[in-house]
């Protein structure tokens, strides 16, 4: 079966895109507004896209035709954010922070999470997340109601117990959550991870 995008409306396209491009990591983004209110929300249109310079990208939508989601607005106004990775332990909290609260509401408080100071940016890190990536705005490309936010990574905080004996981050110790289509998720564990070396050129 072939599904031609010219026959689909935006809602159907969203459903199809997010069902076939899987699994997606979740950028759990903390920001602080120009007024000083903490904000936290998850975004799975998210990827690391360059190492030199170190860049990641997140695609954030709008609340209405003219009103950007709080995370986009805050990054635009302050130029700073933190991407916190989502693990099994904080799954419920992540879900709470996806509720479209008003911008005066601090989602850290709503979800019972602990904000801790970052090194380079004003936006706080989520203490309960084992990986926090401090970023500054590199560029925002607005396409229709979407904001494609390119962030430059300034520093990464990793919890000590997820490092292996060589000092590398061991992903299988993290139990990171991935987003699938609809309300489905997947989990990275030691059991469902495997190694495959690249073949040598003959
Ligand atoms: C797992 C998950 C992934 C999401 N991914 C996105 C996304 O990539 N882009 C987006 O605009 N909204 C996404 N959302 C919805 C936002 O989290 C939601 O609109 C949130 O209220 C935005 O908060 P803010 O206004 O504080 O920025 C996602 C929600 C969940 C639960």
From TrEMBL:
Keyword Ligase assigned: no
Segments forming domain Flavin reductase like: 19-170
Keyword Flavoprotein: yes
Superkingdom in the source lineage: Bacteria
InterPro entries referenced in this protein's UniProt entry, alphabetically: Flavin_Rdtase-like_dom, Split_barrel_FMN-bd
One Pfam match: Flavin_Reduct
Needed co-factor(s): FMN
Keywords: Flavoprotein, FMN
Cross-referenced Gene3D superfamilies: Electron Transport, Fmn-binding Protein, Chain A
Entries under PANTHER family matching the protein: FLAVIN REDUCTASE LIKE DOMAIN-CONTAINING PROTEIN (PTHR33798:SF5), FLAVOPROTEIN OXYGENASE (PTHR33798)
Annotated family: Belongs to the flavoredoxin family.
UniProt-recorded name of the protein: Flavin reductase family protein
Organism: Persephonella atlantica
């Amino acid at each position: 079966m072939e599904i031609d995008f010219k026959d689909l409306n935006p809602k159907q396209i969203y459903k199809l895109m997010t069902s076939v491009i899987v699994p997606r990591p979740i950028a759990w983004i903390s920001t602080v507004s120009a007024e000083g209110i903490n904000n936290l929300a998850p975004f799975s249109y998210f990827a690391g896209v360059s190492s030199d310079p170190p860049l990641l990208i997140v695609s954030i939508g709008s609340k209405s035709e003219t009103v950007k989601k709080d995370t986009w607005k805050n990054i635009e106004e302050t130029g700073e954010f933190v991407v916190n990775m989502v693990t099994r332990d904080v799954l419920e909290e992540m879900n709470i922070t996806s509720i479209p609260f008003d911008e005066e509401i601090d989602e850290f408080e709503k979800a019972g999470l602990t904000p801790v100071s970052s090194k380079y940016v004003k936006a706080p890190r989520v203490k309960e997340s084992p990986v926090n990536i401090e970023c500054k705005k590199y560029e925002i490309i607005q396409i229709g109601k979407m904001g494609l936010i390119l962030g430059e990574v300034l520093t990464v905080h990793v919890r000590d117990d997820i490092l292996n004996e060589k000092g590398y981050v061991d992903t299988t110790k993290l139990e990171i959550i991935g987003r699938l289509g609809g309300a489905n998720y997947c989990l990275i564990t030691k059991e469902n991870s495997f190694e495959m070396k690249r073949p040598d050129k003959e």
